[in-house]
Structure prediction request, 569 residues.
Amino acid sequence: MTKKWFNAGWMQQLVFTGPATIAFSIIVLLPFVLGMYYAFTDWNGVADTVKFVGFDNFVAAFKDDSFRSSFAFTAKLTIFAVILTNVVAFLLALLLTQPIKLKNILRTVFFLPNVIGGLLLGFIWQFIFIKGFAAIGKSTDWHLFKLPWLGDEQTSFWAIVIVSIWSGAGYLMVIYIAALINVPQDLTEAASIDGATAWQRMRHIIFPLVMPAVTISLFLALSWSFKAFDVILSLTKGGPFNSTQSVALNIYTEAFQNNRYGLGTAKAFIFFLIVAAITTLQVWLTKKREVQA
Amino acid sequence: MKSRTYNGKTFTMEIGAILLALLFLVPFYFLIANSFKSFADILLDSAALPKSLQWANYEKAFDIMNFKKAFSNSFIITVTSVAGLAVFGSMAAYRMVRKPNWYNNLLFTMFVAAMVIPFQSIMIPLMKVGNWFHLINSIPGIWLCYLGFGSSLTIFLYHGFVKSIPVEVEEAAVVDGCSPYGVFWRIVFPLLKPMTVTIIILNSLWIWNDFLLPQLMLGPELRTIPLSTYSFFGQYTKQWDLALAALVMGVLPIVIFFLFLQKHIIEGITAGSVKG
Prediction:
């Protein structure tokens, strides 16, 4: 008898989808909805009563110079990191789809930085930029290595770009390799016979066929850069003079250091809207350009 | 297409690739070489090889960052969360594929849509929710968080894979008197294995390396490796001899994990992202 109700349709629904749905509702949905509410209040994280303040937080967020400059920094980082990481990854993938002997070992090497978490990566590179570069500069006398890399606004930005490429390129490379292997060889060979140059083959055959991989890689790189937090926290702490403060870091500081939770959630909501819009738009745009082999 | 024979051009490319790989490894050289030096030697010349191996750096860093405790915290949190995600994620995805009624479709759409929500955009109210449900500073609490955050991608990936499994294999088992749960565990779940490997790998790398969620949720007793590294750097800024040894120990477990399972990891990542 007990078996009967246990096997009933509603019970199955509960057993199979229940645990994931409950966890998801408590951890993602509830905070998401609450966030939308708190964004319109003066919540400070401690007080029991919160006051409804309308759009004040949003106005304050847009007027906040540190928030605006964190957006400018994040946008700039995203542009450079997304393009450069993808270019490097694609070139590495092209190289490793050639019949070279060590390609498996090389693939492992290029991928390796990616398994290390952002926080530890940032600390490792902090040492490289401060002590390692100085040592290289001393022995080679190259100006490039003698710059105060993390002490200057310009070079700190590039330091973060370099670390982003170093850690992200291997991952995207793996995706590009999988796509390149699937380009049918007879197509490129036929084009060769018809007199297409290497660049023409790349432009008209390989690029359109690896477009799905481009979609994925752009999407991934975009979301890495937009949500950049760990690496920046450990590499520059947002400095010098807050010049490398990402939006995520700005939100974190606003809420957990300045205790302005209402303002923080308003900023977080703006952040969500922009990330969601960009990623949706980007996937839609590149999907349109995909072709079937 | 380029010729498949190994000629001068390929050889040049091979050399170029090796040089690039060495360039990629330079940070590891600096990290490891200096972790064995005395503080004075690091300041003197950080590019040189260590004159003698200062194991004392490691001993000190091991104690200060309470590495044993941090490692076991990281390990317990990662393993239980990943197991939870694989079990509950596959179950939910299975039901959603096999019973595509309106509420299951709505549920699936919600899980997928939530993938565009960045963690930082809901972390502030999450702390409030964490207080209500007593999730703060507890392993079951952070376990539930990982289940919630990880379920979107996990269900999405399993959903695509379950679709490729023919219903006929299940029908045979039902005829043999298998319960609906038995059908799932004995027939379907084993068939999901390739996707389970992908899911375990993607989630392990993410959870092991995650910093922000544990930073918000866990107190000093439950520190994971990234957290204890962070607090170590807070106290011993510029004490590079100890800091680098701590970093090497911090990176080592995940690097070993990768080197042992690299074939599965690289395949898993390809499979996971091509579907995503």
Observations:
- Chain B is about 75% helix and 0% strand.
- Residues 240-275 of chain B form the longest helix (36 residues).
- Chain B touches chain A through 98 residues (CB under 8 Å).
